[in-house]
Design brief:
- The chain has 71 residues and is α+β, with helices and mostly antiparallel strands.
- It has one domain: Alpha-Beta Plaits.
- 27% of the residues lie in helices and 38% in strands.
- The chain has a 4-stranded antiparallel sheet with strand order 2-3-1-4, covered by helices on one side.
Length: 71
Amino acid sequence: MQERYEIRVRGFLGPLLRKVLGDLRIRTLPRQSTISGRLSDDDLERLLTRLDHSGVQMVCLSRSPSGAGER
């Protein structure tokens, strides 16, 4: 089952990392970026591992209630 997550990280995500993240939505904020989308537990674990291995520092991880923010 997939849940909607938002991950806030420090800094700007470069073009290569953005490309690797595929269908996830990425927004750039002052000094931070957000990554959001629907992920399974396994996908979330892989994403967090990839970010960690890329040297990206996570600031916050939040899960949205089901149906919130759906298009």
